[in-house]
Amino acid sequence: SHEKICRYIARESELVVVSVGYRLAPEHKYPAAYEDCLNATIHFMKNIEHYGVDPARIIICGDSAGGNLAAAVSQTLAGRSDLPRLRAQILIYPGLQALDFNLPSYQQNRGVPLLFRERAAFFALQYLNGDALHMQEVLEGSHIPPDMRLKYRKWVNPD
To answer: Are 73 and 60 in contact (CB under 8 A)?
Structure first.
C-alpha cells in the first residue's frame, strides 16, 4: 500500500528505503506485527554491507500503526551494541497512546475525520487482541485498574 510513497522517498532523498510488509490484525494478534518489523530490521542491519548502505545513516520511519511499530523497534534496538546505531526515527501521526481515550487530545479531536476516537479505540483493540468486545470500557477508561493508572500517571495525565 505504500510502494509509491516509498519509491518517491527513495528517489527524492537518494536513500535506500526498506518497507516491511508485516502481518496485520485482527488475523494476526500482537506481537506479530512488531516481531515482523523487528526481525526485518535486524536482518537488514546485520546484512547492511550486502545492500551498500552506510550504517551511520539508518532511519526508521512509520505512519499510524506503523509509527507505533517504528517507535517500538527503535526502543528495542537502542541498547544493542551488536548492530549499527539508528540515526533517527520518523513517526508520522503515530498511534502511541491507547491507554486513555479521555485525554484532552482525544476529547478535542473526537469528531475530527479521519480517525474518530471510537475508531482509534477499535483499532487499538484489534491490534492487541483481535476483537472489540470491551470497547465501551476502553472508551470510559474503566479497563485500567486504579493502581496502574496511579503508577503511570506521569506519562498518561491530562495535566
So the answer is: yes
pTM of the predicted model over 0.85: no
Cα 53 to chain centroid distance, Å, stands at 24
Dihedral pair phi/psi, residue 60, rounded to 5°? -105, 135
Look up residue 81 and give its three cell numbers.
551494541
Q: Which helix (H) or strand (E) holds 143?
A: none
For residue 78, the surrounding DSSP H or E stretch is: none
Say whether 152 sits in a helix, a strand or coil. coil
pLDDT in tens, 41-74: 999 999 999 999 999 989 999 988 899 999 999 9
Which has the higher per-residue pLDDT, 101 or 78? Answer: 78
Report d(CA 159, CA 156) in Å as an integer. 9
Under a CB-based contact definition with an 8 Å cutoff, are residues 43 and 35 in contact? no
Which residues, at least 6 apart from 137, have a Cβ–Cβ distance to it below 8 Å?
A: 143
The string of pLDDT tens digits covering residues 94-123 is 888 877 888 888 888 878 777 788 888 888
> Which secondary structure element, helix H or strand E, spans residue 73, and what is its range?
helix 65-77
